[in-house]
């Protein structure tokens, strides 16, 4: 077939190619400028490139969620902040909540690893020196992951703690299991009151340290106990290890009325 007959021999085939090229061009422009998405196959990218692109999108989304809230942020806002097209964002995430879930999931893994390392360093959980060191480590963990705790409050306000709930579910049970040997030994030695669960006591200390430093970091607490951080850790440790009230004559069960009558006689 001569060259002059190329476009006359199979006109339908060449017309289809032209229409296909035109359609791809239009869809590419729509991806850039509108909410319409081209759902064809993505070009093959290396795993490292894919992770880099996702990280850029998630970092942009995180900053917007923290600044203006989840529901006030659109996918278009995220694309613009990340410096990419709207269609490219949709190539990686179907919804905004999927982006939020991915951000929280990665942070949660980091926090879990951090707590695991902290707990691994504790030999005797209710020993004063251990609690002081524990309080210092909780302070550092809160300070090092400022954005994570901000997202937690956004989750509470906008999702009724749907994403962060698992962080606190079964906390006493998990700590009781983690330090079962140490808690059993404390009970057998009579080192704790017979009616006190050491797992509850340690969880209370953990949550007090955590909440204190959360208020200091996120809400500008500005020494809201009127003490330095180290003094707060020392004071809380003393309260949990010794208690608040002194026993009278070795028996704290006597009522004030009986004690007064005894002193009068």
Q: Topology of this protein?
A:
Blueprint lengths: L5 H4 L1 H23 L13 H22 L6 H8 L3 H7 L3 H25 L7 H17 L1 H14 L11 H8 L1 H10 L8 H21 L10 H14 L13 H9 L1
Helix pairs in contact: 3-4, 3-6, 4-5, 6-7, 7-11, 7-12, 9-11, 11-12
Query: Do you know the CATH architecture of the largest domain?
Result: Orthogonal Bundle
DSSP strand count: 0
CATH class of the largest domain: Mainly Alpha
Number of domains: 2
The biggest beta sheet is recorded as: none
Please explain how this structure is put together:
This protein has 265 residues and is mainly α. 18% of the residues are buried. Helices cover 69% and strands 0% of the residues. The chain has helices at residues 6-9, 11-33, 47-68, 75-82, 86-92, 96-120, 128-144, 146-159, 171-178, 180-189, 198-218, 229-242, 256-264. It folds into two domains: 11-94, Arc Repressor Mutant, subunit A; 100-245, Orthogonal Bundle (Tetracycline Repressor, domain 2), CATH 1.10.357.10.
Short description:
The protein has helices spanning 6-9, 11-33, 47-68, 75-82, 86-92, 96-120, 128-144, 146-159, 171-178, 180-189, 198-218, 229-242, 256-264.
Characteristic key phrases:
265 residues, mainly alpha, Arc Repressor Mutant, subunit A, Tetracycline Repressor, domain 2, 2 domains, 13 helices, disordered N terminus
